[in-house]
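Design a sequence for this backbone.
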C-alpha cells in the first residue's frame, strides 16, 4: 500500500506539466540534481517514510473508575483530569510513555482511531484507511474526535508493532510495544491477544 502510494507520487512528479520538453535521457540527471538540492541522502526512505522528527510521544492512561486504558498525547490526560473538577469524576492515572506517532497527517501514514463501547465501558484503537473512514467494529462507535494520531499500517521505516491485550471480563484493552509485557499479560490467564493494532515509532530511535 505504501509502496503503491510512493510510486503514484513519483509518477505524478515525472508527469508534471512543462517538464515534457526535457528529453527522456536527461531525467536521471534531472532527478538526482533535484534530490541533492533537497538534501536527500536516501531517496527511497525520503519517499516512503514520514519525518520521524515530527513524531510525538503517546502515553497510556488508566481510569480505575471505568477500568479502562486509553492511549493519547500526555496533554490530553492533563486537560481531562483538570477539566473534571469533581473528585468523583473519572481521573486518568499515568501508565507511562509507550511509543511515538504523528499528531497530524503525514505522507505514508494512516489514522489511528479511538472507538468506544457505551459510555466508558471499553475503548479500542484501530487504524482506518483515511480520515473519513473509521474502522467498523461491532458494538463500538468512533469516539469524540476519533483520530488520536497518525501511524503506519505496515512494518516500515523503523516502526514496531503496537500490540493489544484484552481483559474481556473487565472489558478492557491494554496497549504495548514491549513483547515481554504482552507475553506476561497473556500468561496470566485473564488476558487474551488482541493482535497488532498498528506500527509505531519506538520511544528511542537509534
Ligand atoms: C468475571 O469474573 C468473575 C470472577 O471470576 C465472574 O464471577 C464473572 O462472572 C465474570 N464476568 C464475566 C462477564 O465473564
Ligand atoms: C482474573 O480476573 C478475575 C476477575 O477480575 C479475578 O477474580 C481473578 O483473580 C483473575 N485471575 C488471575 C489469575 O489473575
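Sequence:
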Amino acid at each position: 500500500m505504501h509502496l503503491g502510494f510512493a510510486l503514484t507520487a513519483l509518477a505524478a512528479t515525472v508527469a508534471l506539466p512543462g517538464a515534457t520538453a526535457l528529453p527522456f535521457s536527461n531525467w536521471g540527471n534531472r532527478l538526482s540534481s533535484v534530490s541533492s538540492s533537497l538534501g536527500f541522502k536516501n531517496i527511497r526512505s525520503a519517499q516512503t517514510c514520514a519525518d520521524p522528527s515530527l513524531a510525538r510521544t503517546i502515553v497510556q492512561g488508566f481510569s480505575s473508575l471505568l477500568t479502562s486504558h486509553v492511549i493519547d498525547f500526555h496533554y490530553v490526560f492533563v486537560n481531562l483530569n483538570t477539566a473534571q473538577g469533581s473528585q468523583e469524576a473519572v481521573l486518568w492515572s499515568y501508565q507511562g510513555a509507550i511509543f511515538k506517532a504523528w499528531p497530524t497527517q503525514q505522507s505514508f501514514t494512516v489514522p489511528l482511531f479511538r472507538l468506544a463501547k457505551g459510555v466508558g465501558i471499553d475503548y479500542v484503537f484501530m487504524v482506518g484507511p483515511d480520515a473519513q473512514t473509521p474502522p467498523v467494529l461491532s458494538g463500538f462507535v468512533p469516539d469524540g474526535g476519533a483520530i488520536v494520531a497518525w501511524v503506519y499500517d505496515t512494518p516500515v521505516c523503523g516502526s514496531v508493532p503496537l500490540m493489544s491485550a484484552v481483559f474481556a471480563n473487565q472489558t478492557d484493552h491494554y496497549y504495548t510495544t514491549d513483547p515481554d509485557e504482552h507475553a506476561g499479560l497473556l500468561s496470566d490467564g485473564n488476558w487474551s491477544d488482541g493482535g497488532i493494532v498498528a506500527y509505531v515509532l519506538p520511544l528511542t530511535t537509534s
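Residues 169-170, 188-190 surround 2-acetamido-2-deoxy-beta-D-glucopyranose (ligand 2) (CB under 6 Å).
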